[in-house]
From TrEMBL:
Compositional bias ranges of the Low complexity kind: 46-55
Region span, Disordered: 42-72
Keywords: Membrane, Transmembrane, Transmembrane helix
UniProt xrefs under Pfam families: DnaJ, TerB
InterPro entries documented for this protein: DjlA_DnaK_co-chaperone (IPR050817), DjlA_N (IPR007791), DnaJ_domain (IPR001623), J_dom_sf (IPR036869), TerB-like (IPR029024)
This protein's name: DnaJ domain-containing protein
Bilayer-spanning residue ranges: 6-31
Source organism: Psychroserpens algicola
């Protein structure tokens, strides 16, 4: 599969708006020849395909007042690439271990060929000045909550790839989570999965140490439902693997508290 066909076939709602502009610029530096660039940006020349790739303003207005369109795997992938580039540059440098983490994660999720396409795009995205707020607001408007939580989990994984999460990275991810419409409780829950402390198990379940045993059990059921891999099944099997990691962290946190309290 050619690079142009891979990207063109992967994008849905992310083809427009600020994300579309970022991707268009990145593609422009990767694809030689005006004809081939036109083929990517406009589909196969069929007007019906072009209209379906980028919703009309009327359709976008209707989607705001009704329900979000289902996020495609490609939309999630592109959102991931852009936000990953923001986090990696948060401390003023691109650490090789973080770049390796991104590449390894994409190989794990997509296989070597697709990962190579994605990483080529990522390197060109990372050269741009990203309008973080605008990008996040587009994602927030179009992407379901469970998928946004999965984005946040991946971003913390990138920050931790070099062995530590810097204050600059934490600040950047916190800002991104706010723009994405993720609550402070959900943010703290996912953040706790990447730290070791005595109260992390409680933070993951979004409760305090003062919670009763029954409240712990109730919190576990709630979080297990929230982070269940089936919540992102529409993104494809490749993204369920990341969701399974969050789910395991919830189970591990609950088992820790069970052992600690002896119930």
């Amino acid at each position: 599969m050619s690079f142009a066909k891979w990207v063109g076939g992967a994008l849905g709602w992310s083809f427009g708006g600020p994300i579309g502009a970022i991707i268009g610029l990145a593609i422009g530096s990767l694809i030689d020849g005006a004809a081939e660039q036109k083929g990517f940006l406009l589909g196969d020349g069929n007007s019906q395909n072009r209209q379906s790739s980028r919703p009309s303003s009327r359709h976008r207005t209707q989607s705001r007042t009704r329900t979000r369109p289902q996020t495609q795997s490609g939309d999630f992938e592109v959102s991931l690439l852009i936000l990953a580039s923001v986090v990696i540059k948060a401390d003023g440098k691109q650490d090789q271990s973080e770049l390796n983490y991104v590449r390894q994660q994409f190989v794990s999720m997509y296989g070597k060929d697709r990962a190579n396409h994605a990483f080529r795009l990522f390197k060109n995205i990372s050269k741009q000045q990203i309008p973080t707020r605008k990008v996040c607001l587009q994602i927030r408007e179009m992407m379901d909550h469970s998928s946004r939580l999965q984005l946040l989990h991946f971003l913390f994984g990138i920050a931790k790839a070099d062995g530590m999460v810097t204050d600059d990275e934490v600040s950047q991810i916190y800002m991104i989570s706010g723009y994405l419409g993720i609550s402070s409780r959900d943010y703290s829950s996912i953040k706790a999965m990447f730290y070791n402390s005595s109260d992390n198990a409680y933070k993951i379940l979004e409760i305090t140490k003062e919670a009763t045993d029954e409240e712990v059990k109730k919190a576990y059921r709630k979080m297990a439902k929230k982070y269940h891999p089936d919540k992102v099944i529409h993104l494809g099997k490749e993204h369920q693997k990341g969701a399974e990691e969050k789910f395991r962290q919830v189970q591990k946190a609950y088992e820790h508290i069970q052992k600690e309290r002896g119930f």
